[in-house]
Design a protein that fits this description.
This protein is mostly helical. The protein has one domain. Helix content is 56%, strand content 9%. It is built from four helices and three strands, in the order βαααββα. It is elongated and about 65 Å long.
């Protein structure tokens, strides 16, 4: 199992994964709230649900900026950004999203399978070989 190169990469990966999960939660909640508010015809709820949709769009833009520094250590792919690369044959999407499966796996399991190379990576920093050899 591969490991991320340094502790900063671990922090970036966890933050980006949490932001991605928050974006998906915002999208689901705002869609349900918008459907309910349109059925009830409550203009205040409609305004609130539209503002939640805009918040989800803003979080999505922040994720785009933040996730470009998060890479798979083996293939240097961007596992938290839906790319145009071909995916590995054994990797399956979750609700049609490969990055969502990576984010949930990274947060709850502590490792993820890269959707591009198919290799597992632990969400922990590599040990420094020069220090490990000396001890």
């Amino acid at each position: 199992m591969h490991r991320l190169p340094n502790p900063y990469a671990v922090t970036r990966f966890r933050c980006a994964a949490l932001l991605l999960m928050c974006k998906w939660a915002l999208v689901i909640v705002s869609a349900i709230m918008l459907a309910y508010s349109l059925c009830v015809a409550n203009p205040e709820l409609i305004k609130l649900s539209i503002s939640l949709i805009w918040l989800a769009v803003c979080v999505g833009l922040i994720i785009r900026l933040f996730s470009h520094r998060v890479r798979c250590p083996l293939c240097i792919g961007l596992p938290l950004v839906g790319g145009a690369c071909s995916t590995h044959r054994s990797v399956r999407p979750l609700f049609g999203s490969y990055p969502l499966r990576v984010a949930l796996s990274a947060v709850f399991r502590g490792w993820f399978r890269c959707p591009y190379c198919g290799e597992s990576t632990a969400i922990e920093a590599r040990r420094d070989r020069s220090r490990a050899a000396g001890t």
